[in-house]
Design a protein that fits this description.
15 helices; 8-stranded parallel beta barrel; 318 residues; globular
Length: 318
Amino acid sequence: MTSQVDQLKKLTTVVADTGDVNAIKKYSPQDATTNPSLIYKAAMMLDYAKIVDDAIAYGKGDLSVTMDKLAVGFGTEITKIVPGYVSTEVDARLSFDTEATINKARDIIKLYEEVGVAKDRILIKIAATWEGIQAAKVLEKEGITCNLTLIFSIAQAVACAEAGCTLISPFVGRIMDWYKKAKGVDSFAPAEDPGVMSVTAIYNYYKKYGYETIVMGASFRNSGEILELAGCDRLTISPALLEELTNSTGEVVQKLDAGKAAEMDIPKIDTSESNFRWMMNEDAMATEKLAEGIRSFAADIVKLEEVVQAKINASKKE
């Protein structure tokens, strides 16, 4: 029997959600995504000590340059394994600063180009705040492709599509987490999972109105959520869940269908800044999870900076 992951690959582009190069090799995904949390975990592994050491040597004591080089170091190794996109994240602390986000993205692309990685292999990952979306709009016009992340609302998704973003990462599991707590329940059936329903609504809206922005479901808590989104453009999946799907042979049925979505009666959404902010204000879950996600990524950057700074200090004493 064919594994569920192989069946899924016929319906959806499978992406590995990890900074662990060895894990990526195992599952042969099309693309790979990283974030500060994943880079932190990978940077703590002895297998990747050389990437950390090389970044410290390159940075010459400058923490900011070292951090960018570290992210690019992991990304460069991943480009040698996956044939498609590798996502590298802009510092989450810049999430409300359009100009700083643009400049950081340009710096990251320059570092990739220094080591021979073309910019069309890289997605610059940016939190989908209004400011982040405006930064992506500028970068896309420069030919720098972007992955807008921490998407919890149709308002964010539509604004990203209107801005011409290459790809968005609407989150599933974190939405479910919020609703489990809010409703006092232990779980949802996959088809009734609020995170699954959110990504489905975004996918259907995009296909209804002919947007080319790629929808890549992210942040899964279980394989049921993944299988309920079979047919989505892309799904980025952790190694643990990829392993579970590899070891299972149950039938995978297409759930999302662009042709059917195009025939649906879906009202158009106003993408002005004022309406974006109002829709976010009216959506307690999206507002809370976006803020929490930015705080979490920022905290992981600080943790990684502390480790890297200690290594920089140690290298100066040698």
